[in-house]
Design brief:
Helix content is 35%, strand content 22%. It has helices at residues 16-29, 34-41, 45-51, 78-88, 121-129; strands spanning 65-73, 92-98, 105-113, 134-139. A hairpin with a 6-residue loop joins strand 2 and strand 3 (105-113). Helix 1 runs antiparallel to helix 2. The radius of gyration is 18 Å and the shape is globular.
């Protein structure tokens, strides 16, 4: 985690990074829709979603929450295994949403408080992906 971040002068970055920050500000502070904000600054929605969680101004506090999504086999205890990995990393579960299993597959979304986490979100996601019966784990936000 020591080398996950760089301090870079925005003059050397492509212009769309500023546009993403402008759109993010419109969505968060002016209650504009993502589509409207992206149209106004001239970027695609995919560019916005790709970068919005990874760039911020230096004086902004990083998010203290994360949302993870899981596609799992419907077996007894799978949620407990996932929660065990989350507990090991010192993250706190805020919400759990789970779909009813269909054809042996269930989808779970978990919102975490990550203030005290001892590993990166990428490492946590990778560890959960290694669990038996977890078909796919991904970081949403």
């Amino acid at each position: 985690m020591e080398h996950d971040y760089l301090l870079i002068n925005k003059k050397i970055l492509p212009d769309f990074f500023n546009d993403v920050l402008d759109a993010k500000n419109m969505v968060e502070n002016e209650n504009k829709s993502v589509s409207d904000a992206c149209k106004e600054v001239g970027i695609s929605r995919s560019t916005y979603y790709k970068y919005k969680d990874f760039i911020r101004y230096p004086d902004e506090k990083p998010s203290d929450k994360a949302v993870l999504s899981f596609k799992v086999e419907d077996i007894p205890g799978i949620l407990s295994f996932i929660l065990g990995k989350i507990y090991e990393c010192k993250a706190s579960v805020l919400t759990i949403n789970q779909t009813a299993p269909t054809q042996g597959i269930a989808y779970i979304t978990i919102t975490l408080s990550i203030n005290e986490m001892t590993v990166t979100l990428e490492d946590l996601t990778s560890e959960i992906n290694k669990l038996d019966h977890v078909l796919h784990a991904t970081l949403l936000k």
